[in-house]
Amino acid sequence: MGKYLMGEFEQLVLLAAMRLGEEAYGVSVARALTEQTGKEVSQAATYLTLKRLEEKGWLESQAGVPSTQRAGREKRTYQITEAGLAKVRESRATLLQMWDEVAEQL
Amino acid sequence: MSKQGGGPRWAEALIRWMADDGDVAEILGDFYETYAQRRSERGAFSARIWYWRQTSRLAVTLIPRRLGASGRTHRPRQVSAANSPNISTLRGNKIMSIGQDARSALREVRKDFRFYAFAALIIGLGIGANTAVFSVMSPLMLRPLPFEDPEELVWVALSEAEGNMSLVTSRASNLRDFRELNQSFDGLTGFFAFFEYQSFNLVGEGEPERLVGAGVAQDFLDVLGVSPLLGRNFVYEEGVWDGRPAAILTHGFWTRRFAADPGIVGRSISLNDVPTEVVGVLAPSFDFSSTFSPGSRVDFLRPFPISDETDNWGNTLSIIGRLKPGATVESAQADLDIIVQHLQDAEPDRWGLGAVVSGLQEQIGGRFKSAMLFLAAAAGAVMLIACANLSNLLLARGTKRHKEMAIRSVMGGSRKRLVRQLLLESMLLALLGAIVGVGIAYAATNAVAGTTAVRIPMLHSVSIDGMVLLFTLGVALVAGLLLGVLPALQMSQGREATILNDSSRGSSEGRSHTGIREALVVAEVAIACILLVGGGLLLRSFVSVLDVQLGFRPDGVVAWRVDTNRNLFDPDQPYGGLPGAVVFYDQLVTSVEAVPGVEALGLSDCLPLGRNRSWGMRVVGQPDDPEHQYNVYPRIVDFRYLETMGIRLVSGRHFTPDDNWESGNVVIISESGARRMFQGENPLGQSLTLAGGTEIVGVVEDVRHQTLEHTSGIEIYLPMMQRRWGTLDMVVRSPLPPEALIGPVSAAIRASDPTMPTGDFRTLNSVVDRAVSPRRFTLLLLGSFAGTALVLAALGIYGVLSYNVSQRIPEIGIRMALGESGGQVLGRVVKRTMTLAVVGIVIGAAGSFLVTRLIGSMLYGVEPTDAVTFVGMALVLLSAAALAGFLPARRASRTDPMGALRTE
To answer: Looking at the complex, does the CB of residue A30 fall below 8 Å from at least one CB of chain B?
Structure first.
């Protein structure tokens, strides 16, 4: 996976999932992002991103219990993996370094 | 639109289709949560818009992925130790994976289209047979009659009599009295059962035409609960004796003759020179003739008065009743029993009293019930053979696919999943077969529905309708399951290692495998044997029926219906009265006799195998008790008729032109009549209590008058010159072919009376033919089933043996290398074939022995255990098996030992 850079939305989703902990799933992630960014984040985009992150091995998921609130469908919750955590750290380091370098111009 | 507890239905369906199986629940759940919240906050419309926006956003990404990966299995999900198999996820996957399996089954079919086309054809034969039989059965036995609350309708016959229409009909006085006295019926009505023997010449609306009008009691349509499509039912003034002439046209006649002109209602048409008002038109759903009188044609209904006048005509009414709510066939029977007893006590002289109540549907369809059930069973048997056959084919292919299955199994496909996949494939196969089957059945029912040559009720309404299609679908699914279950279980067996071993060694398959396939072949042969024996027995019955002593010679005889508009018995008319009427017909006969090629001719009001009417009478001098009251079947004939028909004189004399209105009344009786009434005494010179005493002057041979199968009752012939008649048939005997005769005779008839329609003729052979038509119909169907079964069984034998041979080529090679000759190899394979066939035949013969007892009632002149049939059919099967086994055997015997060993 080496030198792959995370996209902005990917980073946002990953961070939101970390913050939500055990409560991270499609709806809560999208809601958190909407609140945070102040603009409507699409449920579909969130879902697709969660999937993509899972495929890359940065998230792992677990099926939960169906509920009436969800019309009897199971919930799938996401947790960050070791690889994901490493990637976030790496990304954070890269970004912080770059931000630092331009700090004077801001 | 969205059902409770979900998002918009179609959007959900789209998601189900495009998303991976494992992810569907998650997406639908997530979407739904937000959707539900939005709905409560911003309303349903906004929520739906949102849902669809999300769905389309997904579609942009998922659909290309889906289409690009049509052969995909699950994209591997990263499985961590923490969340390995999770039961609820698996359950969620199930529905979707069926869809996936179905797609994969479709792929399988596309990959090997030729095999599946052939297989679908075989299964289509089975399904077609079932669908065809069902569609004939359904209007007769399953679909309710096209009347209001048909289960309340009953038939009130005069007495219990099989195949004897005359004893089913009743006197008008019976209807009159039953109507008055009963407590069980909401309505009692009837129709004139011999309407075919009345005719109405339509003049003044184009070509003159002979019409058939069925006389019905005034309340007939009301009791059946049928209302006319146009106009009205008959009213009281039209339903009485000498009432106002009125007619209700049948839909068919209205369309044919009046181009469905609604303006016809209220107009007057001329029937037998009587202006008759058309008061209504029947709906197409009410097909009088196919319901009550199959094989005949009805152009209009006319009122039939229930009066003293019509009562004198004898047993002429078919009575139909509608039970009161709560009344049953039994309670109505009890009610009528008491009434009949009461009437008989009050009037000991009264004849023709009696009432036997039965359900109308049963009365109409009942006679054909056993034949239909038998055919249905036969069609089911064909289906079983087809399934066994395909099972075998699939099993043989199974070897080819074992590797695929093994790989799938190793890759983690559960056995259940593999079985399901294989069953889906066989279902798909059966559905393809259903398409073929519906095609076959469509052709068959089209042929059947259009014919008037078969006297089976409701045949005209036979068609492939929704109910039939539903049935076909059901049959196809059952068939798919039946034919697929064995191969599926076999193929999905978890024997990956063995399979690798098997195919690499090139050895033959395991014993159990071959065993199953051979058992299937034996079953096929056994079922085919039962069908063949059944068909053989029917064939022999058919031949015996055709061999029946008719009592007359139908060859070379054509019968014309010769009716005139003139009211011959009205004294105010020219020819009025009996002598004039005789003169009128003498002129006609003279004119036709002059036609070259005409050998003989005669007149009768009652041809064999057609009309039946019965009168009650006694012999003068015998005791006046019910035991000596006879039901006789009268025929009014001219002095030429008996000789023209070839009815042999046994004793006494024929009629002569001197047996006329001036001489004493005379009668000729049949042999059975003589036996029944005089028990060996000489009947000549004795008298019947008819017209105050009618002397018996001759005895003639029995004629099969009612059906070919039933021996004759008491028949009497009365001379035309001594008794009024209704309608007449003229029989013309000639060595000329009918085509050559028809033109000149018609011309001669017209020369004698220009107003007489001449289009109504038939050969006596066709009359006989129509009488055997239900039997032929059954035979034809069963014969084709048995033929199909034979072919399928032979195909099954061929398939299994040629497969066995191909599997055993190495073994055969070794044997031949060690000195076995080609002939020995051939012998061994043929012996195997014969063993299979003989085992199947023995089982089948035992089965036939049990089954054929059940069809005893359909047989005629042959025992259900007829040895000739059993042996004959066994031989047919054996030869078919030998042929089927010979081809693979020959191939085996030509094995090249070296080549076979090299492939090892």
So the answer is: yes
With beta carbons under 8 A apart, name residues in chain B contacting A25.
30
Nearest to A71 among B5, B27, B54 (CB): B5
Give B88 to chain A, closest Cα distance, Å.
8
Quote the CA–CA distance of B468 and B138 in Å, as a whole number: 8
Domain positions in chain B are: 1-72, 159-354, 368-547+770-903, 557-764
Q: Which residues contact B163 (CB under 8 A, 6 or more apart)?
A: B367, B706, B707, B709, B710
Residues B804 and B891: their CA atoms lie apart, in Å, by 11
Partners of residue B557 on adjacent β-strands = B733
Closest CA to B21 of B82, B69, B80, B83: B69
Read off the pLDDT of residues B8-25 as tens digits, 9 standing for 90 and up. Answer: 888 888 888 888 888 888
**What does the pLDDT look like over B68-103, one tens digit per residue?**
554 444 444 444 434 444 444 444 455 556 667 777
What residue of A is the nearest CA neighbor of B34? A27
pLDDT confidence band for B719 (50 / 70 / 90): very high
Q: Does the structural domain A8-105 have CATH classification 3.50.50.60?
A: no
Q: Is A43 part of the contact surface with chain B (CB cutoff 8 Å)? A: yes
Q: Spell out a b/e string for A3-17, using b for 16 or more CB atoms within 10 Å of the CB, else e.
A: eeebeeebbbbbbbb
Looking at beta carbons, which residues of chain A come within 8 Å of B7? Answer: 71
Centroid of chain to Cα A72: 25
Q: How far apart are CA B607 and CA B864, in angstroms?
A: 33
Q: What whole-number distance in Å separates Cα of residue B75 and Cα of residue B265?
A: 74
Locate all alpha helices (DSSP H) within B312-359, ordered by sequence: 329-346
Convert B458-480 into a string of H (helix), E (strand) and C (coil): CHHHCCCCHHHHHHHHHHHHHHH
DSSP assignment, residue B138? I
Q: Which residues of chain B have a CB within 8 Å of the CB of A57?
A: 78
**What is the model's pLDDT at position B163?**
45
Looking at this predicted complex, what is its ipTM? 0.87
| B556 pLDDT above the threshold of 80 | yes
The DSSP bridge partners found for residue B202 are B209, B271
Q: Which residues, 6+ apart, have CB-to-CB distance to B653 below 8 Å?
A: B697, B698
Residue B419 tokens read as 């079985």
According to DSSP, residue B495 is labeled: -
Query: Of B9, B30, B32, B61, which to mutate for an interface test with A (greatest number of A Cβ within 10 Å)?
Result: B30
Within 8 A of A60 by CB-CB distance, chain B residues are 78, 80, 82-83
- Chain A hits for B88, Cβ within 8 Å: 63, 65-66, 74
Mutate to test the interface with B, among A53, A55, A74 (most CBs of B within 10 A): A74
When pLDDT is averaged across residues B420-438 and rounded to a whole number, the result is 86
Is the minimum CB–CB distance between A51 and chain B shorter than 8 Å? yes
Tens of pLDDT along B235-272?
999 988 888 999 999 998 998 888 889 999 999 998 88
pTM of the model: 0.62
What are residue A76's DSSP bridge partners?
Answer: A63
